[in-house]
C-alpha cells in the first residue's frame, strides 16, 4: 500500500523518483481523467482497476510521443550510423514503471493517483509482462535496448511480436502445468501498429538460374506487419524503437487455389499462415529443429533486412546526388548484431538481396555482409547449438541453401589452402555436417559471415577460442572478442529497489545511475556504522515486503528474520538445482539429528520454468516441492528451515524477490554457464553470492574481491580432468555418508511416500557433475551460515559487493559493443541529442573575416 508521504519523505525520494511539482501533478490528473473518459470510455462509477491502469499508461505514454518523434526526426536529419539488434527474444517485462523512472515521472504519478484515491502500485500490478523471452538471452536484449537509448545510440531492436509469450507456470500437486500467456487480451497500450510499413516475406518455391541472374520464384508470401514500441533512454529525451513483426496472410491467400476447398476454406486457412508469430518456443539453451521455428527465424530476418535497406536508401546520406546511392557504403552506416545464431539467416539473406536484387558481384556482396554483421555466442552446450537439417532448408528456403553452399565452398577452399591435406579439419570446419542426416551448422555460418564473434563473459570467450571454435580462432583470431554481459541499473536497482537506490544516492549523489562505476566510491563508507545500518535496514524492509507479498498471493508464511536463500533461473540440469536440493536435505537431516543446536534459520526459495518437453527439469520441480512438503511440515524443524517453490518466475517476480534476497545461488558446473545475468542482479541488490568459478561469477569475484564471495567447487580444468578420468557418481556416494543418506532418501521414497520410485531416475544423475561438488558446496554453505549470524560483518561484505558492481552495468557492455564492434561512439551526456532537443539553444553570429570570407560562429547555451 502506498501511503501519503510526509514532506520529508517526499524530499528524500525526489532524487531517484523524480519531482512531484504541483503543476506536474495537476496536469497528470487532468490527462488521466481525459483518458479514462475519451480513451477508455468509462466514468469512475464503472471503471475497473484495469481501466485505471490503462488510463495511467496512456497518460504516461503521452510524455513519450513528442520525444519519440523528435528523436527519429533527429536521426533522419543527422543520419548517424544505425545499429540493429536482431533477436528472437525480447524479455521486456512491464513497461509502465520503467517509463516513469526514465522520464522522472514516478513521484508525480504516485502523487496524482493518490490524490485521485488510487494506489499506483495496485494499478501497476494490472500490467501484463511482455514475456517474449525464455531467460537470460531475452532479458539481455531488453537491458541492451535500455542502455542503447541511454547512451544515445541510433539503435533498433528487431524481433517477433509473439501473440503468446513464455507460458504461465502453475504448480499443481507439485507438478508444473503450462498455461498459454494471452498477454494481448486486453490490448497493449505501449505498441503502435504500422500497417503502412507492411512487408512481404517469401517461403518455399524454387530457384531459376537465368543469364541475367537468379530468381526465386513460385513462392508463398506472408506479410510482416510491424508494431513499434518506444524505448526511452534514462532522462535524456531520447526514445528509440523496438519493432516487432506480426504475421499476416495476404488477402489473396489460397484464394486462387480452387482445389483447396473454395473461398470459405481459403479465408479459414489464413489462420495457418499467421501461425508464424503465434507463440514463443519455450526452450532455454536447447535446440528443437521444428519447421515453424525455422520459419520464425527467416520471417524476422527477411522483414528486418528490407526495413534496414529501405531506411539506408531513404537516408539523406544514401540518397544525396553527391554520394551515389551505393550499397558498398552499407557497413559505414549499418551494424547488425545477431543475438545468438537464431537470426543467422541475416547473412545469406543479405547476400541474396545484394546479389539477386542489387546485382552486385559475389565478392562485393560478401565484403559488405561480413563488414556489417557480428555474432554473439551464448552457449557451448552441444544440445543448444542450432544445426538445421538440409532437407528442411531445401524445401523452405532453396535459394538460401544455394548461397550457404557457395559460402561453404569458398570457405573450405581457403581452409584447404591454409592446411593442405588436413581433411579432418575441413570436416570439422564445414558449414555442412555430413554423416547421417545432412545439417547446416549455424554457428559456423555466423563465424564465417561476421567480422566479430563474441562470448558473453571472459571465461566463456576463452572457452570458445580454446575448444568449440578453436579451428576458427586459428584462422581468424582478430574476429574473436569478449563482451561481458551486464544489466540495466534502471530496472534492476532504481525501479525494483528504490530504498537501496536512495541510500546510495544519499552518500554519493545520483550520477551513479548513468555511470555505475561510481559505486566504487561506496568503499569509503564500508566502516561507517550509519551506512551499514541503512543498508541492513533496506534489506530488512524488502524482506518484510516480499514476505507480505508471498502471504497475500500464495498463503505461505515465512520467517522474515531467516536468511533468504534464493535460486531463481530456468530449471536446467547444468544449473544444478539438484545440488541445492542435496544441501536442503543435508540441512534437514542435520537439524533432525541435533534439534537443539543454534542453526541459522533459512528460507530457501527456488523458482524457474522447465521447458514443457524437458522431463528431467519437470521432475526437479516435483522433487523441490516434495522436499518442501516434508521439511515445511516437520514440527521439529519449525521455522528454521523452509523450502518454497516460487511459482511462475518471470521478470516481474525477479523484480520482487531479488531485492529481498540475502544469498544468491549461482552454482552451475564450471564451464557451462556462459555468463549469467541473474548473478549480477543479486549482487547489485545487496545479496551475497555462493557460486562456482563459472561465467561472470569469475569477474564478480575479481571486482568485489574473492574474499567477498563464497566460491566453491571444481574449476573448469578440474571438470575437464574429471571428464577425462570418467565420472563415477558411486565413488562419492559411497565415500560421503551425508550424501549417501540424502540420495537414499530421494530414491527410497522418503519425499514421495505414496510413490516410492518417483525420483529413482533423477537421484543418481550421471549427466552432470553434481556429486563431485557436493562436499565443497556443503562446507561453503556452513561458512555462509556462520557469517550470517554476524549482521555487521555480513553487511560489510554486501557493501564490498555493491561497490564492486560497476562493471556489470549493461551501459558498460554496450559502450564496448559500440566502440569495439559497431564502430560507433556512444555520446557523452553533455552533447547528447536529447539535451540538444530540449535545452540547448544555438546562437549564430555571421561576420566577414579579414580574408573576405563569410564566417559563422556558433554558441551553444544550455538553459
Ligand atoms: C535475469 C533473468 C534470467 C537470467 O537468470 P540467470 O540466473 O542468469 O539464468 C532469467 N529469467 C528472468 C526472468 C530474469 O530476469
Automatic annotation (TrEMBL):
Q: Which organism is it from?
A: Cyprinus carpio
Q: Specify the enzyme's EC class, one word.
A: transferase
Q: Its function?
A: Allosteric enzyme that catalyzes the rate-limiting step in glycogen catabolism, the phosphorolytic cleavage of glycogen to produce glucose-1-phosphate, and plays a central role in maintaining cellular and organismal glucose homeostasis.
Catalyzes what? [(1->4)-alpha-D-glucosyl](n) + phosphate = [(1->4)-alpha-D-glucosyl](n-1) + alpha-D-glucose 1-phosphate
Q: Which UniProt keywords apply?
A: Acetylation, Allosteric enzyme, Carbohydrate metabolism, Glycogen metabolism, Glycosyltransferase, Membrane, Phosphoprotein, Pyridoxal phosphate, Transferase, Transmembrane, Transmembrane helix
Q: How does it assemble?
A: Homodimer. Homotetramer; to form the enzymatically active phosphorylase A.
Protein name as it appears in the record: Alpha-1,4 glucan phosphorylase
* Gene Ontology biological process: glycogen catabolic process
Provide the transmembrane region boundaries: 842-861
Pfam families found in the cross-reference section? Phosphorylase
Q: Which residues carry this modification: N6-(pyridoxal phosphate)lysine?
A: 681
State its cofactor: pyridoxal 5'-phosphate
Q: Family per UniProt?
A: Belongs to the glycogen phosphorylase family.
The EC number(s) attached to this protein equal: 2.4.1.1
Molecular function via GO? glycogen phosphorylase activity; pyridoxal phosphate binding
One annotated Gene Ontology cellular component of this protein? cytoplasm
